[in-house]
Amino acid sequence: xxxxxxxxxxxxxxxxxxxxxxxxxxxxxxxxxxxxxxxxxxxxxxxxxxxxxxxxxxxxxxxxxxxxxxxxxxxxxxxxxxxxxxxxxxxxxxxxxxxxxxxxxxxxxxxxxxxxxxxxxxxxxxxxxxxxxxxxxxxxxxxxxxxxxxxxxxxxxxxxxxxxxxxxxxxxxxxxxxxxxxxxxxxxxxxxxxxxxxxxxxxxxxxxxxxxxxxxxxxxxxxxxxxxxxxxxxxxxxxxxxxxxxxxxxxxxxxxxxxxxxxxx
Length: 265
Hints:
Layout: E1 8-10, H1 21-62, H2 75-105, H3 114-136, H4 150-182, H5 184-205, H6 218-251, E2 261-263
Antiparallel strand pairs: 1-2
Helix pairs in contact: 1-2, 1-6, 2-3, 3-4, 3-6, 4-5
């Protein structure tokens, strides 16, 4: 008699190794570079006209008092190579930081995949790093602001960024602590209300900065501020979309290899 061969049992496919943080860091910096390119285009198309108008007002006000010296770098070079270099480096730096935050947040924000986590992290960083400080200390065009208070204004802006990041982190911790007793939805609502109240308190306690000349066109200030916000929005939106795609490609396995079989004993 011949014995029949034992049936083949498919072995479970081994999960693919998770990419190292360095892999996501590189992809985050690449996404930041692309986002910086988009932000540069938005800045050149929307922001440079308001900057030129503000500089013209500044030069007209200074005419007859002090002719000054010729600028070492031409305005055309500032608006192209200078602006592009600064925005691209800014995008790469923020992309690297956001990628590291994504590495930490992945799996800690609930059952979200890499792309959804990238969207949440990007939205949170945009609100924390850009939107909250902007609402307290909005950007101003040239000719607005006393040069002697530039250091103080910069320090206040950086302090607002730090407070916003700390308060957002505290809200996340509060939400996670309350989730077991209140549920995810109620805990998130309580944490969100607490965050808004804390930010409002910070707005009230920090000193205001209002150095806009009385004769400066209000429409030009708002055009400049809206252009600045549009540049930041384009930067973060592009980064979130690109990095979400790259992170998902790195973290989600592709087609599984052919299953190995093992005879049963």
